[in-house]
Specification:
This protein is an alpha/beta fold. It has one domain: Glucose Oxidase, domain 1 (3-Layer(bba) Sandwich), CATH 3.50.30. 27% of the residues lie in helices and 25% in strands. It contains six helices and eleven strands. The longest helix has 14 residues.
Length: 232
């Protein structure tokens, strides 16, 4: 496993990563936040499933939910077969979506759409997950990042949006921004405190197939056991 932190400037190392060596010698890459660039580049360039949600810092204040996520994905066999939630999901826009799970920190993922080390398959469908936090971005900034993603060709392949923890008390303006996003693209949108820069750190495997289904005021989100690599 390569377990690492995020931080500004992570994207600077993308040209120096030996992607072919990683493809031949797969490892478990796990981090979150600004490591969005590295996780998505490794997935895009190698086909290797990477893991968003837990970095080194979480072990300094390890909570039970985070430990159980680490355990189910990395210690009990290989890859969790279903998603375990620890919070009540807010349904912003109802519907169903299925596709390859992909995403990360909102601003970094928006910028990755123009990066030469990231590519997506136009013939595939994707469930997009994003997160940001009030310590780093206001609602206006999040709306700007979402607008760049919304206006990209990538959105033609997106079937659903899952947005992670932003604050203890979610601003109504953020929920309205997310609702507009869903309405514009006719996709389901949900908000959850299960992952992001809060106290819960769910693991989201980039590159596995997932399904989001909202019905009866509940959101069901699951994925099958991930393969080691799309190219293996």
């Amino acid at each position: 496993m390569i377990l690492f932190g995020g931080g500004w400037g992570a994207v600077e190392i993308l040209p120096f990563i030996d992607y072919e060596n990683i493809r031949r010698n797969p490892k478990l890459f796990s981090s979150y936040s600004d490591a969005t660039s590295i996780l998505n580049a490794v997935y895009s360039q190698t086909g290797l499933v990477t893991y968003y949600g837990i970095a080194v810092g979480e072990f300094y204040d390890l909570r039970l939910y985070t430990y159980r996520q680490f355990q189910s994905h990395f210690l009990e066999g290989y890859g969790a077969k279903r998603f375990e939630s620890d919070s009540e999901w807010k349904i912003i826009r109802e519907g169903c979506g299925e596709g390859t799970l992909i995403g990360g920190y909102t601003s970094i993922f928006a910028l990755m759409l123009t990066n030469e080390y990231f590519a997506y398959n136009k013939d595939k469908k994707y469930i997009l997950f994003l997160e940001d936090h009030e310590r780093f971005s206001g609602v206006g900034a999040v709306a700007t990042y979402l607008a760049f993603i919304s206006q990209s060709a990538f959105m033609r392949s997106v079937t659903a949006l899952i947005f992670g923890h932003f604050s203890v008390n979610v601003p109504p303006d953020l929920l309205r921004v997310l609702q507009r996003f869903g309405e514009r693209h006719n996709i389901p949108v949900v908000y959850t405190d299960d992952f992001g820069h809060g106290n819960r750190h769910a693991v989201l495997p980039i590159g596995v197939n997932a399904e989001l289904n909202t019905s009866n005021d509940k959101a069901a989100f699951n994925f099958p056991q991930p393969p080691l690599s799309e190219k293996s």
